C-alpha cells in the first residue's frame, strides 16, 4: 500500500500514474519551474520545487515520510540530478521507504539491427544520453542494495498518450512519414506505464523491466493508421535520406531493435494498450487524444 508517493520529476508519465492512484493517496512531486505547479495539482500531486542542485527543507521533510519513491528526472551532464542532490537523504533520512522506481529508456540497449532484445541482452548505448541513463540505472540499483529496498528500473519505449500522439501531430500539421527500410520502433502508452508501475508496486518487485508494446512497427505505419481513423489523407512518405531532421531525431533512426516485454508479463501484468492500433482506437473513440488533462 502506498502511504506516500514522492516523485522526482513529475512529468508526463509520472502524472499519468498519479492520476490512477486511489483518492486521498498522499502524492508529492517536484518540478523545476513554478509555472508548472498547476499541471501537477490537476494530477493530484502536491508540487515542490527542486533545482537538482540541493534538497530544500520542504523536500527533505516530505522524503522523511515517503514509502514509495519514483524517479523520472533525466540525467544531465553531471549525471543523475536526484542522486547528486538527494542520495544522502534517501540513504539516511527515509525510514519508511519500501520501494523505489526508476524510469529509464530502451535506448540503453543501443542498436541491434532489428533483432529482439530483452533484459538479459548486453547494453551498448550509442548516445551520451542513453549512456547516462545506464549509469543512473546502475547507481539506483546499488543504492537499493545498500538500503535493502527493491528498485524497479523500467526501460520505456517511445512514450505516447493523450496530448502526445500521431493525432495531435496530424492536427498541427507536423506529422511526417519518414521511411527507412527495415526500421521499427516499440512504443508504450502512458496507461501501461501507470499500469506497470502499479503492478510492480503491488508485488514489491525490483529488477529490470521493459515496458514496450507487443508490436514493434515502422513509424510511418502509425501515422497512416491515425490518419485513417481521422478520415484524412496521410502526409506523403519521405525517404530517410531526404528528410530534414535535427541531430537527436536522426539519432533515433540510427538504432533498430525489437523490445520484448515478456518479463513483466511473466509477473502477471497484462497490457491495456498492447499495440498502437488498440491505443489509437481507444483515444479516438473516447475523444481523449488532445490533452492529458
Q: What composes the largest sheet?
A: 7 strands, parallel
Helical amount among residues, as a percent range? 25-40%
Mean pLDDT: 96
| Helix-and-strand structural type | alpha/beta
CATH homologous superfamily identity of the domain at 4-160 and 186-213 and 259-272: NAD(P)-binding Rossmann-like Domain
Q: Radius of gyration in whole Å, from Cα?
A: 19 Å
CATH class designation of the domain at 4-160 and 186-213 and 259-272: Alpha Beta
Helix segment count? 11
The N- and C-terminal alpha carbons lie at a distance of 26 Å
Strand order of the largest sheet: 3-2-1-4-5-7-11
Number of strands: 13
Overall description:
The chain has helices spanning 12-18, 37-42, 57-64, 81-92, 128-147, 166-172, 190-203, 219-230, 247-252, 262-266, 276-286; strands at residues 4-8, 26-31, 46-49, 68-71, 99-105, 116-117, 151-156, 158-160, 177-179, 187-189, 207-211, 237-239, 258-259. With 293 residues, it is of the alpha/beta class. It has a domain at 4-160 and 186-213 and 259-272: 3-Layer(aba) Sandwich (Rossmann fold), CATH 3.40.50.720. Helix 1 links the parallel strand 1 and strand 2. It starts with a strand and ends in a 7-residue tail after the last helix.
Q: How is the secondary structure organized here?
A:
Blueprint: E1 4-8, H1 12-18, E2 26-31, H2 37-42, E3 46-49, H3 57-64, E4 68-71, H4 81-92, E5 99-105, E6 116-117, H5 128-147, E7 151-156, E8 158-160, H6 166-172, E9 177-179, E10 187-189, H7 190-203, E11 207-211, H8 219-230, E12 237-239, H9 247-252, E13 258-259, H10 262-266, H11 276-286
Helix pairs in contact: 1-7, 8-11
Amino acid at each position: 500500500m502506498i502511504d506516500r508517493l514522492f516523485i522526482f520529476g513529475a512529468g508526463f508519465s509520472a502524472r499519468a500514474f498519479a492520476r490512477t492512484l486511489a483518492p486521498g493517496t498522499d502524492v508529492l512531486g517536484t518540478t523545476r519551474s513554478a509555472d508548472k505547479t498547476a499541471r501537477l495539482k490537476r494530477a493530484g500531486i502536491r508540487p515542490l520545487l527542486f533545482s537538482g542542485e540541493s534538497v530544500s527543507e520542504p523536500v527533505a521533510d516530505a522524503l522523511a515520510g515517503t514509502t514509495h519513491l519514483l524517479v523520472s528526472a533525466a540525467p544531465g551532464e553531471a549525471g543523475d540530478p536526484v542522486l547528486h542532490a538527494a542520495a544522502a537523504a534517501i540513504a539516511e533520512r527515509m525510514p519508511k521507504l519500501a520501494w523505489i522506481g526508476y524510469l529509464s529508456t530502451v535506448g540503453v540497449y543501443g542498436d541491434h539491427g532489428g533483432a529482439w532484445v530483452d533484459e538479459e541482452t548486453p547494453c551498448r548505448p550509442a548516445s551520451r544520453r542513453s549512456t547516462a541513463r545506464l549509469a543512473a540505472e546502475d547507481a539506483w540499483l546499488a543504492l537499493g542494495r545498500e538500503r535493502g529496498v527493491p528498485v524497479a528500473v523500467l526501460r520505456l519505449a517511445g512514450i505516447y498518450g493523450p496530448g502526445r500522439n500521431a493525432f495531435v501531430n496530424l492536427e498541427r500539421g507536423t506529422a511526417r512519414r519518414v521511411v527507412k527500410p527495415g526500421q521499427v520502433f516499440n512504443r508504450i502508452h502512458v496507461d501501461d506505464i501507470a499500469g506497470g508501475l502499479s503492478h510492480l508496486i503491488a508485488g514489491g518487485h525490483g529488477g529490470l523491466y521493459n515496458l514496450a508494446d507487443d508490436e514493434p512497427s515502422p513509424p510511418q505505419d502509425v501515422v497512416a493508421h491515425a490518419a485513417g481513423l481521422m478520415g484524412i489523407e496521410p502526409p506523403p512518405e519521405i525517404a530517410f535520406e531526404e528528410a530534414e531532421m535535427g541531430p537527436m531525431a536522426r539519432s533515433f533512426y540510427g538504432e533498430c531493435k525489437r523490445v520484448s516485454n515478456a518479463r513483466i508479463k511473466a509477473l502477471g501484468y497484462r497490457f491495456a494498450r498492447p499495440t498502437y492500433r488498440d491505443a489509437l482506437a481507444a483515444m479516438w473513440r473516447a475523444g481523449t487524444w488532445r490533452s492529458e488533462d
